[in-house]
Amino acid sequence: MIDAPPPIEVRDVTMAYGDFVIQRDLNFPINQGDIFVIMGGSGCGKSTLLKHMLGLIAPAAGDIVYSGQSFVHANSNEQERMRQRWGITYQSGGLFSAMTLAENISLPLQLYTRFSPKERMEIIAYKLALVGLDGYQDYYPSEISGGMRKRAALARAIAMDPDILFFDEPSAGLDPISSRLLDELIVQLKESIGATVVMVTHELPSIFAIATNSVYLDANTRTMIAYGDPRELRDHSEQAVVRQFLTRSSATKIEETA
Q1: pLDDT of 79 strictly over 60
Q2: Could you tell me the residue ranges of all domains in the chain?
Q3: Which DSSP symbol is given to 216?
Q4: pLDDT digits (tens, 9 = 90+) for 23-33
């Protein structure tokens, strides 16, 4: 029996703006069911890597492969079909302010499905209930709290039961309690729809609470220097800069071990 390829593979990827290289030689898989964290210090290219994975930026070299199919070398129709299996939430939530929550969540259903208006409303009600916003269909984003907007954005991201969920700093701007509740919600939704989760975050409580795997991008060497369970990396990584990041040591200068 041949094993299925992982949902995502980053293969020999170099990210650059012109001659300026941000990261090079990135190679790692993201396995089925992972809650995978892209981490590293400020300016290392975490969000840029996420944009490459979403197809918003083309790599200077290398490929990003979804379930064995190249995204970089796929034609536009094939890329669009792949994107329809993703759910994406942005740091600010990304909701349209002039639309109600129901109208926001309805957008992907209108664009990519043939559900009737009645069926769409049933799906919207169900997805809002999943994220704890039952009955909020007619509210506008400005009428709810920041934490609720994050959950509404998550309801839109799961509208089509995606295979992969992407998050860019999901708990940014939230208080610790709201952040913890959002982490718990991400885990619950991942399990309920069977998705693989990819997150960019620097929040240690979130990393240690829910991440199952990770990659560390180093700004100095401009490449990945660690891959694996962040708890293992915190306790056993050979790279001191990784241990420092994951313990937030107060040391002013850390030299990487061999």
Answers
A1: yes
A2: 230-258
A3: E
A4: 999 999 999 99
